[in-house]
Amino acid sequence: MTLRRRGVGVRCKGAARLGAAGGGFAASGSQTPFEGRVGQSRETLPETQSRKTLPETDQIAGSARNVHLTPWREMCRRGDTRGSPRRALIRGAGTLAVAGGAVLAWGHFEAGWVRLRTLEVALPALPDELAGMRIVHLSDFHLGFRSRATRAVERAVEWTEACDPDLVLVSGDLLSRPRGEPLLRELLSRLPRCYAVLGNHDFAVTRDPFSKPAALEDLSPTVLLEDSAATVELRGRRVQVVGVDPRSHRLREERPADLADPDADLRILLCHFPSAVDRVPPGAFDLVLAGHMHAGQINVPRPGGKIRLAHLGWRYAQGLYRQPGGVLHVSPGLGTTFVPFRFFARPEATELVLVPGE
Ligand SMILES: [Fe+2]
Q1: Residue 303 CA, ligand 1 centroid: distance in Å
Q2: Bridge partners (DSSP) listed for residue 301
Q3: Which of 63 and 317 is assigned the larger pLDDT?
């Protein structure tokens, strides 16, 4: 009786509250499971029943909360999900996206950030009249490929016009796509005393899926050299330029030394590939100019140098090399291939100033 009275009393209190709140529920007087649970107070249950049911259930639930819930789950339970793995994943992905965007933005910027450099090149047996002779070496325009590098090429041409050098020599990869040809011809027409060879990209002989052959032939007023030679008189001396066709170079069929004029006062070999310097006999040429390497284009700095991703197996990357076949200059080039980015490989136009010396 005690139990029922106390249960009813509790139920009535609950029913009164529910009735006030929702109306009509307690008036039915039915013993719903809900009412029964409310009506059973812990103090009025027999001792044995109390230990078997409510207290133990409460202890187990309390124990689970205290021991098995991880901190973030506990935070979730409280409505605080700041430290959850999902939020950490979203935050990490966001950080990566921002960092990746910044890296790509830099690569895009660097592709157009042309360096205009003057290098002194010591050549043995250089006639006095040719001391101080200036050659601007340009390479790898890759026009027709949408990239900020096009701006680098235009800036290099403006600078070359202002330099007004004795010679302008262009070492191939003029176009990546035929649609760049009108701009190429306009730019070449502004270069004084210009000689050029083609590169592998001009024939789309490359793994670059964006490259298309251009079938370039006459580039007047620029003189296009394809396994041929031209001689120009400068400062009263004869300067010969021999140009290699990239197709014959790849087939190892080129013979530029056969075209070298022994009576010329200065002999220059122009080839897209730097390895040309290893295929000519010593003394055949004084100067060898090449491109192709893009200075690695995508470089990863590391202690003691760079990992040059564009050409992992490189022997000549950029700059000057003194070899038995002649003094080699490898241009970093101006354009981009595969992707419109450069990292730690700024495009460059180089003015070579010849001086006598070893
Ligand atoms: Fe190139």
Answers
A1: 27
A2: 306
A3: 317
Expressed in angstroms and rounded, the spacing between residue 237 Cα and the centre of ligand 1 is: 32
Distance between Cα 289 and ligand 1 center (Å) = 14
Cα-to-centroid distance, 334 and ligand 1 (Å): 9
The residue-averaged pLDDT of 26-37 equals 37
Instruction: For residue 220, report the distance from its CA to the centre of ligand 1, in Å.
Output: 22
Distance 310 CA to ligand 1 centre (A): 10
Query: Which residue reads 């124990």 in tokens?
Result: 63
Q: Which amino acid is at 84?
A: S
Q: Taking the mean position of all CA atoms in its chain, how far away is CA 246?
A: 27
Instruction: List CB contacts of 250: < 8 A, sequence separation 6 or more.
Output: 200, 205
Q: Kindly give the distance from the C-alpha atom of residue 34 to the centroid of ligand 1, in angstroms, as a whole number.
A: 81
User: What percentage of the chain carries pLDDT values higher than 70?
Assistant: 76
- Centroid of ligand 1 to alpha carbon of 331 (angstroms): 10
Domains along the chain with CATH numbers? 2-68 (no CATH), 112-356 (3.60.21.10)
Residues 85-113 pLDDT 10s? 788 888 888 888 887 888 899 999 999 99
Examine the pLDDT at 172 and tell me if it is beyond 70. yes
- Stretch among 13-22, 149-158, 185-194, 198-207 having the lowest mean pLDDT: 13-22
Q: Is the pTM for the entire model greater than 0.85?
A: no
* Ligand 1 midpoint to CA 294 (Å): 6
Distance of CA 177 from the midpoint of ligand 1 (Å) = 12
Low-confidence winner among 239-253, 255-269, 289-303 (lowest mean pLDDT): 289-303
Instruction: Give residues whose Cβ lies within 5 Å of ion ligand 1.
Output: 140, 173
Query: Does residue 225 have a pLDDT over 80?
Result: yes
Whole-number Å distance between alpha carbons of 270 and 193 = 15
